[in-house]
Predict the structure.
Amino acid sequence: MVCFGVCIYSYCNYNTLSGSRGGDILKQWISDCVVVIPREIEGPLTCIFSKMDKSEAKKRAGKLRDQINELRYRYHVLDDPKVTDEVYDSLTEELREIEKNFPDLATPDSPTQRVGGKALSKFQKVRHAKRMLSLNDAFSEEEMRDWEQRLRRLQPHGAWAYVCELKFDGLATSLIYEDGIFVQGATRGDGFVGEDVTQNLKTIRAIPLRIDLELSHDSFVPKLREKEYWEEIKKRVIRNTHKVRRIEVRGEVIMRKRDFNKLNKLEGGKYANPRNTAAGAIRQLDPKVTASRKLFWQGYQLMTDLGQQTHEEEHLILHAMGFPVDLPAVYSDLKGVFAFRDHVIKIRENLDFEVDGIVAQVNERSIFEKFGVVGKASRGAIAFKFAAKKATTVIEDIKVQVGRQGNLTPVAVLRPVKVGGVTVSRSSLHNEDEINRLGLKIGDTVVVQRAGDVIPQVVEVLPKMRTGKERSFHMPKVCPICGQPTSRRLISSSGSRDVNSPSTSLRAANAGAATVCTNPKCYAQQLRRLRHFTSKAAFDMEGVGPKILEKFFEEGLIRGPEDLFTLTPGDIAPLERLAEKSAANIYESIQSKKIVTLPRFVYALGMLHVGEETAIDLAEHFGSIEKIERASFEEIDAIPNIGSAVAKSIRDYFKDRKNLEYIKKLEDNGVVIEKQKTLIKKSGKLAGKKLVVTGTLDSMSRDEAKAAVRAAGGDWVSSVSKNTDYVVVGAEPGSKAEKAKTLGVKILSEKEFLKLIK
């Protein structure tokens, strides 16, 4: 840094120096050094910079960028408290003035580009090159051991270590770099498609606008590893960075506790917690608002294959590139994982950021990838959450909601209480069985927790707090919306059955039972179906919210989703409080969604057990709605991540003539369902092979066997035919073993099966 006094000297003697050789000396001196410009003399010194020729300005700008980037790295990655915002801002202001005088010297990775441009009208959608996954949760050591056992069954002879890191409570984002320069940033969204928030992410100083492809930020390595170890990684990665143009890094947008407290104090305490505040800031249409929130960013995954062999190496590489990362700990067994979590619990309150647990995952990438994905999460990683935050409150009432499938759900109305910094006033009680299990009454004092620090739930009743005025609750005999009778039904793998039927066992009746409205035309069910159909994950009809749908329904304009596409602006405009322009906007929103992707269409149908993930699986397997309609139970059941209960629900839906007529009406009214590109068949030892398992296996459960078959590239099928390649016979096999013998299908013992899937 240059002495402040010299800056003052240059200001005082500017007129004398600028017209002599002294001016040339001063300009050369300014070019060679990095000056911290006091605000009072900013203007006069700008005059000096404006008199620089272009080559001098270019040299000066380069030095400023290097210095600013070095300060960014020291402050945000090394957490160096000596670096101040005043120094950073002063240098950036000087660089901005040079770029103002020489516009062609401005570069995309310049620190001056962090905040700029006009506010957006909306965010554009971005399709991720590779799906952004989430994590499954565990809350106890027992659940962690169960997770490990599942992994051991899938890879009985595998050997791996666990890598642990903090689980930051923030917003997951993806960063794309081309030739080392930050070009795009996006939110997770639904995992497949997110929102482009590039300009907002640029405002976060912790995110480098240019990454160091030579990995020169590696001074930390000797403290962690032998120098030879790091040099081997470094050579391997640099060799690959020169071959790969595009690099993707993922991480979490977070907010420091101190910045959150400062903002909340300034805004009168209107923000609930740092996580929600950070997420809201990233979705501001004006980057200047985002910049004012002082967000941070923490990296956790290098997506591009640069030769890294472990997850630990990913973190080391990201650090050396200039990203702030949590340098992870590696353990040979779960004992080390538990010790790491206990340590984090002790220091949790002293951390700069909110953390809601730790992440443990298989360190070796080759083994991690073999475990694959289940639902929205990788099998080889898990979030080991901290115990949920709890509080006590009173159940003031229990309301009943009616879902789109007709299920009645009791919801506890709570005396408002803060749990983990968030005010809670409602909590689902799930069903009558849960109320009975808790022994809960209206008026009870209860313990409420936020599961995973998010979802409020009633976990315990305090009977000693009762006054005698508490009231028992019973599910209604008639639907609270339409007044038609309700029925208690069993929701199981074999479908929906009346619990009171003689064929339903008492044991079955106590598991998975729900109270259901028997009226398929129930107003509440119809509205729920409409809201599901227009939701973001389905047809995504922006502006067609619950109140608009209620108006359409009450006025008799629609009776089902298919009628939405027949509405005209003239139908909509007469509705109360809807102006002509609003009517036109609603009409355009509906009409613009007539072309829909196959996954969205399948999800919009609202089939029992079919969520977004299953809809995507169906679309990628069959490619068209016609093929899904014609698919057999066995074909559906053979799809990865789809079990027999879901397969039966899908098959039953398309066997119903009314549902096929409904799809036909949608198409007749102009809905166009795009064809989906089907996935290429996976490779592996069982590629193209169909397997049936009959009987009980000692080494793994049925679901785990199915996962193992699919991981090896095979198809899991439920029935034996001449097209079946293998039948695996366990203990107490059924008739499928005999049928296999009759058809000449090869029979495998459990031992042979395990050898086959290794």
Notes: The domain at 134-385 is CATH 3.30.470.30 (D-amino Acid Aminotransferase; Chain A, domain 1). The chain is about 40% helix and 20% strand. Residues 174 and 250 are 4 Å apart (CA to CA). The radius of gyration is 31 Å.
